Amino acid sequence: MASLKNIKLKILSYKKTGTVTHAMEAVSAVKMRKGQERALSGRAYAAAGLSVLQRLSGTADVARHPLMRDVRPTRSNIKTCIVVVTSDKGLAGSLNSGIIRKVEAEIMRLNLNQDTIVMIAIGRRGGDYFANRGYDVREKHENISDGVSETEMRMVTNKVIAWHTSGEIGACIIIYQNFISTFEQQPTARQIVPITPKVVSEMVAGIRPARGRYAPKPDEITSHQVTAYTIEPDADTVLAFLLPRLLNVAIFHAVLESKASEHSARMVAMKSATDKAKEMSEDLTRTFNKVRQAAITREVSEITSGIESMK
Amino acid sequence: MAEQQTFHLVIASVGETRFDGDVYSATVPGSEGQFTVLAHHEPIVTTLTSGIITVKTKDGEKKFSIDNGVVECSQNRTVVLL
């Protein structure tokens, strides 16, 4: 049986691990709340942009804008851009592996291969994984802070638009962890180019969690009726302004969702680690007491038998 | 003078909502020239150029400087996207 000293050391080390994971849990909890609040900040913009787009789509020439046109059926050698949003660090349960599995599933579903994919990685985990497997990871963005601003995402948006304009890519999908609740995140793939009104309405619907404090009020989502608009100077100019911004909102929002998901997943992972550490140290304390009691009993019986023999 | 009518105005950029409330009028720098939106303005969508949005509320006047944007008026609700 292990010596008393060894057991004691082990108990101590479990307790220390528990303290660390408990602290990480608390930090993640705070970050998660902040992340959730931020994830909502883009909503007003997206909802308003959507209503403009919906009403503009009543006019005939709306599909003429390149970002709204689906060119994939007409060209066979066109590539697809995949934006993979993961975290930089691990210790967050199955968060990143979920994303990677989803990406691979999407690649299968869309019938793509390494030659027809360009990737943009936001977050180190996904970037490293796909770069190591020979994918064309064009851009890697790491160390994105929790307080990421929308302007930082413009780099990504501009790249996507540039590739699309040059005709290299025909579509762009973004894959990220959608925040559903503290205990539930869902790897989500969303098409962001070409932008269709359907894409935007999915985006607005998905911008808030379905349940809980931030759930939408029923009357907020329904958009009002299409009325005849005066459009100045013309629809093309308005779309040229609006579409890149909506694209940027989509990417920005995916990053915020991922952040909220990352912190909640980490919080849950750290909570179970803390619980496990506590359980282990309790078990070991019991073993420790048993060993100590056995030693005392042995000593007592040795002493009494010594006394007996001297009589 | 009769009570001046108000309409709902939202000025939002991607990261934050800069104004959200009821106003009497909003003067915006449209790309085709500056114009003022009053309650029940006809439905219009237009782009904005750099300039200053002047908003009149019952608490006084507010100014927001902008670089560009889109304004949308419909059904007594006006949204400015920056």
Automatic annotation (TrEMBL), chain A:
<dbReference type="GO" id="GO:0042777">
    <property type="term" value="P:proton motive force-driven plasma membrane ATP synthesis"/>
</dbReference>
<keyword id="KW-0066">ATP synthesis</keyword>
<dbReference type="InterPro" id="IPR000131">
    <property type="entry name" value="ATP_synth_F1_gsu"/>
</dbReference>
<dbReference type="GO" id="GO:0045259">
    <property type="term" value="C:proton-transporting ATP synthase complex"/>
</dbReference>
<protein>
    <recommendedName>
        <fullName>ATP synthase gamma chain</fullName>
    </recommendedName>
</protein>
<comment type="function">
    <text>Produces ATP from ADP in the presence of a proton gradient across the membrane. The gamma chain is believed to be important in regulating ATPase activity and the flow of protons through the CF(0) complex.</text>
</comment>
<keyword id="KW-0139">CF(1)</keyword>
<keyword id="KW-0406">Ion transport</keyword>
<comment type="subunit">
    <text>F-type ATPases have 2 components, CF(1) - the catalytic core - and CF(0) - the membrane proton channel. CF(1) has five subunits: alpha(3), beta(3), gamma(1), delta(1), epsilon(1). CF(0) has three main subunits: a, b and c.</text>
</comment>
<dbReference type="GO" id="GO:0046933">
    <property type="term" value="F:proton-transporting ATP synthase activity, rotational mechanism"/>
</dbReference>
<dbReference type="Pfam" id="PF00231">
    <property type="entry name" value="ATP-synt"/>
</dbReference>
<dbReference type="InterPro" id="IPR035968">
    <property type="entry name" value="ATP_synth_F1_ATPase_gsu"/>
</dbReference>
<keyword id="KW-0472">Membrane</keyword>
<keyword id="KW-1003">Cell membrane</keyword>
<comment type="similarity">
    <text>Belongs to the ATPase gamma chain family.</text>
</comment>
<dbReference type="GO" id="GO:0005524">
    <property type="term" value="F:ATP binding"/>
</dbReference>
<dbReference type="GO" id="GO:0005886">
    <property type="term" value="C:plasma membrane"/>
</dbReference>
<keyword id="KW-0813">Transport</keyword>
<keyword id="KW-0375">Hydrogen ion transport</keyword>
Automatic annotation (TrEMBL), chain B:
<dbReference type="GO" id="GO:0045259">
    <property type="term" value="C:proton-transporting ATP synthase complex"/>
</dbReference>
<dbReference type="Pfam" id="PF02823">
    <property type="entry name" value="ATP-synt_DE_N"/>
</dbReference>
<dbReference type="InterPro" id="IPR020546">
    <property type="entry name" value="ATP_synth_F1_dsu/esu_N"/>
</dbReference>
<comment type="similarity">
    <text>Belongs to the ATPase epsilon chain family.</text>
</comment>
<dbReference type="InterPro" id="IPR001469">
    <property type="entry name" value="ATP_synth_F1_dsu/esu"/>
</dbReference>
<dbReference type="InterPro" id="IPR036771">
    <property type="entry name" value="ATPsynth_dsu/esu_N"/>
</dbReference>
<keyword id="KW-0066">ATP synthesis</keyword>
<keyword id="KW-0813">Transport</keyword>
<keyword id="KW-0472">Membrane</keyword>
<keyword id="KW-0139">CF(1)</keyword>
<feature type="domain" description="ATP synthase F1 complex delta/epsilon subunit N-terminal">
    <location>
        <begin position="7"/>
        <end position="81"/>
    </location>
</feature>
<dbReference type="GO" id="GO:0012505">
    <property type="term" value="C:endomembrane system"/>
</dbReference>
<dbReference type="GO" id="GO:0046933">
    <property type="term" value="F:proton-transporting ATP synthase activity, rotational mechanism"/>
</dbReference>
<protein>
    <submittedName>
        <fullName>H+transporting two-sector ATPase delta/epsilon subunit</fullName>
    </submittedName>
</protein>
<keyword id="KW-0406">Ion transport</keyword>
